[in-house]
TrEMBL record:
<dbReference type="Pfam" id="PF01298">
    <property type="entry name" value="TbpB_B_D"/>
</dbReference>
<dbReference type="InterPro" id="IPR011250">
    <property type="entry name" value="OMP/PagP_B-barrel"/>
</dbReference>
<dbReference type="InterPro" id="IPR001677">
    <property type="entry name" value="TbpB_B_D"/>
</dbReference>
<feature type="domain" description="Transferrin-binding protein B C-lobe/N-lobe beta-barrel">
    <location>
        <begin position="399"/>
        <end position="505"/>
    </location>
</feature>
<protein>
    <submittedName>
        <fullName>Transferrin-binding protein-like solute binding protein</fullName>
    </submittedName>
</protein>
Length: 520
């Protein structure tokens, strides 16, 4: 890409921000962003580029070059009140090495009338994509990322942003995730802003041929957070590089578009993305109810640390030496005894197996645990969920509906009996309305007598909180509230839902437990 010899059109991905700026105050009036279809062609004979998108067409020749340096070449054309600017980046602004097979660029068309500037800014990546047959199908890789883009907010100064980070690809699972930090620079005052969540977070899936990828994206600016989408592809003979563009917006009028390019970096470790492919240490926030549930730190396939929710719960390190035979083959069980200042406590910790090791529900991103601690003859039960939660605000721009189906496990406590509870669960989610409905069907086995009790069916309903991709609502029967449910989306594309619940069942039995489901 740095030494083109022949005329050619380039495969690309593009996104466009349309905005209106008030020049006397140097602030934005309005702005929108969207994915765009772009055509870009290089003519080797004249050394010119022709670009077109959304009804705009322009050609830039060598005579239109207004500036160039080691980082980029800027082409500029003017016609009265209208100006056209094409910037082709040769070396990322963060100073990393130039890419061989992919490049980023921007094309800006602006018109100034009576102190107002109307702008169409298209950010794009283009180059020599990887053939489908050459896309890796196994393993994982980390790409060092460079990013550039534009953000606008009504009443505020438009700003460009640039930064660097890492994009991790799991080729075997066909998924990716990235977190790229940025610095924003004012286009009027040249002020610089960094830190405090100024970043791109994105994740999603590779296409069936593996050469392209797409998913959810959130750009965090000094002006707030905006949600949208990202789309890109692999470049080079064997997927050595990648390029992508993203577009985000929010209800307050903030809009952002940007591009990123990257190359494989063996010095970087790919981030874990599924519970079934962990290879290095991974911290998981555990969730129970509407509050925290402690944490699990995965160290290796036989060792993890569990930090309980409460100080009177014995946790600590669990290894192969604490592993015991589980009464259910779909769980891995651990037993230990400890005393954290409240007296000796016997602990049984059961973790629901993810992936193909589970014969009833093969989860990829979510799981749950059941901690049971017995002290002085009294047993306390605690359920929690953990895994790769869907990113905050990933679902803010999502519309449509989805159904999730799965299982429920729990413990029932009555006046004179304790029950092992199991059943089915489902969620019907309306992303556009940010609401959900659902159902639970529960039955229990008396731990003492072995007798079985059918607790019947329950309804669930509530709302989504896009800020942390969670769900919260009530459990009811016959129109009367009998409990609560709190859950979380898991996976970059909200592929799974897991949570905890509590219900007051018939015959005075209180049931607490966990729900795990997959999108159908």
């Amino acid at each position: 890409m740095t030494d083109l010899k022949v005329s050619q059109s380039f495969i690309n991905d593009a996104a466009t921000l349309k905005g209106t700026w008030d020049l006397p105050t140097g602030t934005a009036i309005e702005g929108t962003s969207k994915s765009s279809a772009l055509s870009i062609r290089y003519d080797a004979g004249s050394g010119s580029y022709s670009v077109s998108s959304d009804g705009r067409n322009q050609s830039f020749s060598a005579s239109d070059v207004s500036s160039q340096d080691a980082y980029d070449t800027m082409y500029r054309r003017t016609d009265g009140s209208r100006s056209e600017t094409l910037i082709l980046v040769k070396q990322p602004y963060t100073g990393t090495a130039a890419k061989r097979y992919v490049a980023m660029g921007s094309w800006q068309s602006s018109t100034v009338i009576e102190g107002r500037q109307s702008t169409e800014f298209t950010s794009f990546t283009y180059g020599l994509p990887t053939a489908s047959a050459m896309v890796p199908r196994t393993g994982a890789a980390a790409y060092g990322i460079d990013m550039f883009g534009l953000v606008t907010m009504p009443g505020e100064e438009p700003m460009s942003f640039q930064g660097s980070g890492k994009l991790s690809v799991d080729f075997a699972q066909g998924i990716f995730t990235t977190q790229t930090y940025a610095t924003e620079d004012g286009l009027v005052t040249d002020k610089g802003v960094s830190g405090g969540g100024i970043e791109l977070r994105a994740g999603g899936s590779l296409s069936s041929d593996g050469g392209t990828f797409a998913g959810n994206a959130v750009y965090g600016s000094s002006y707030g957070q905006a949600s949208g989408t990202i789309a890109g592809r692999l470049y080079g003979p064997n997927g050595e590089e990648l390029g992508a563009t993203f577009q985000t917006s929010n209800a307050a009028g903030m809009a952002a578009v940007g591009s990123l390019v990257g190359s494989r970096d063996a010095t970087l470790t790919p981030d874990g993305q599924t519970l079934t492919t962990l290879t290095s240490g991974q911290y998981f926030y555990a969730r129970s109810g509407s509050s925290g549930g402690g944490s699990i730190t995965w160290l290796n396939s036989e060792t993890f640390d569990y930090a309980p929710y409460s100080s009177d719960m014995v946790g600590g390190r669990f290894t192969i030496n604490e592993k015991v035979v589980s009464k259910d083959a779909n769980f891995t069980a651990y037993a230990k005894t400890g005393d954290n200042g409240y007296g000796p406590q016997q602990v049984l910790l059961e973790l629901y197996k993810p992936g193909s090791a589970n014969s009833e529900l093969a989860l990829t991103y979510a799981s749950f645990g059941h901690w049971a601690g017995t002290r002085a003859g009294s047993t306390q039960d605690f359920y929690f969920t953990y895994g790769f939660a869907t990113g905050g605000n990933f679902l803010a721009a999502r519309t449509g509906k989805a159904r999730y189906e799965g299982l429920a496990y729990g413990t029932g406590t009555g006046a004179s009996a304790r029950y092992d509870v199991k059943g089915t669960s489902s969620f019907d989610v309306d992303f556009g309305a940010q609401t959900f409905g659902g159902a639970l069907a529960l039955a229990g086995t008396d731990r003492a007598s072995g007798g079985r009790t059918d607790f019947g069916s329950f309804e669930m309903a509530g709302t989504l909180a896009v800020r942390d991709s969670s769900l919260a609502g009530v459990v009811s029967r016959g129109g009367a509230s009998v409990g609560s449910v709190n859950a979380q989306f898991f996976g970059a594309d909200a592929q799974e839902v897991a949570g905890t619940f509590y219900v007051n069942a018939p015959a005075g039995v209180g049931i607490q437990g966990a729900i795990v489901t997959k999108r159908r």
